[in-house]
Design brief:
- The protein contains 13 helices and 2 strands; from the N terminus they run H-H-H-H-H-H-H-H-E-H-H-H-E-H-H.
- It is mainly α and 279 residues long.
- Strands 1-2 form a two-stranded parallel sheet.
- Helix 3 packs across helix 6 and helix 12 packs across helix 13.
- It starts with 7 loop residues before the first helix and ends in a 10-residue tail after the last helix.
């Protein structure tokens, strides 16, 4: 059954709201709607406990190790990496970056370097205040332990073979080389690789206008051309046209005519038309 359509004449005939009636519940009716105790047979429904994230940086969990900013900076000044310093202090690199850096006011890598430089300068000033005999004792104790020998990096025969292989430039057509030089004027190599991959994998779009020759390059060719270099190589048609145009300069007027005629005959026999030669 469909929805009824209201009629204007019925709405105009409404005389207004009716009288408000009040009613008082009897004691029996009130007792009937009072909440009843939960029976013992009732079982608690299943639920999920959620972990509340502590948003107050001043509140530290009882199981979290207490770390001093000076201890961390001391390890960094002595050459420990961020990960090694965190391990020596009994915490993780993630906890160090997400909690302690915020507590210490270190907001970026640059600010961390500033803190390390300031601590190093303060450390130097304190050492200058130490008496000469005590400073000499400290220097002696620091230099008494010989440094650990530096072990040479182990490389496999396959890695050694890769290192001696020269990186040859990629050979491109003149149009492809010109297009790649043009796009390198406005984009970085990583941006070109990202855009080239999206044209083939994601959006299936193409390079347009003067950059159209780049559509014939595979991802491997594009990456090697950008990072190992490229050079323009003439196509067989371009080489044939070049020989045809330079015939007289190479062989003279009389022999040059014969040479050019021979090129035309050879192209016709092969059924290949080259513009400027026999096309």
């Amino acid at each position: 059954m469909g929805t009824s359509i209201p009629r204007r004449e019925n709405e105009l005939n409404v005389s207004g709201q009716g009288a408000i009636k009040t009613y008082t519940l009897t004691p029996e009716e009130l007792a009937a709607i009072q909440p009843k105790p939960i029976p013992k047979s009732h079982s608690t429904p299943l639920g999920f406990r959620t972990k509340v994230k502590n948003t107050n940086p001043e509140e530290v969990r009882s199981d979290m190790p207490k770390i001093k900013k000076e201890d961390y900076l001391e390890l960094r000044v002595k050459g420990s990496s961020r990960k090694d310093a965190a391990k020596k202090l009994g915490t993780s690199k993630q906890s160090l970056e997400t909690y302690w850096f915020g507590k210490w006011g270190i907001k970026s890598d640059a600010s961390e370097e500033v803190e390390i430089a300031r601590y190093k300068e303060l450390r130097t000033e304190k050492r200058q205040e130490v008496p000469a005999n005590q400073l000499a004792t400290e220097i002696k104790s620091e230099t008494s332990t010989p440094p650990a020998p530096i072990e040479p990096e182990k490389t496999t025969p396959a890695q050694k073979q890769i290192e001696v292989i020269p990186s040859l430039p990629v050979q491109l057509t003149q149009e492809q080389a010109d297009a790649l030089r043009l796009v390198l004027q406005i984009k970085q190599p990583d941006e070109i690789v990202l855009h080239h991959s999206s044209t083939f994998i994601v959006t299936r779009e193409r390079w347009l206008d003067a950059l159209d020759p780049l559509n014939d390059l595979s991802m491997d060719e594009m990456i090697r051309a950008l990072y190992f270099g490229f050079e323009a190589v003439k196509t067989p048609d371009e080489l044939l046209l070049q020989e045809f145009e330079n015939a007289e300069a190479r062989f003279g007027a009389h022999s040059g005519v014969a040479f050019r005629t021979g090129l035309q005959i050879a192209a016709d026999i092969l059924g290949h038309k080259v513009e400027g030669v026999n096309g």
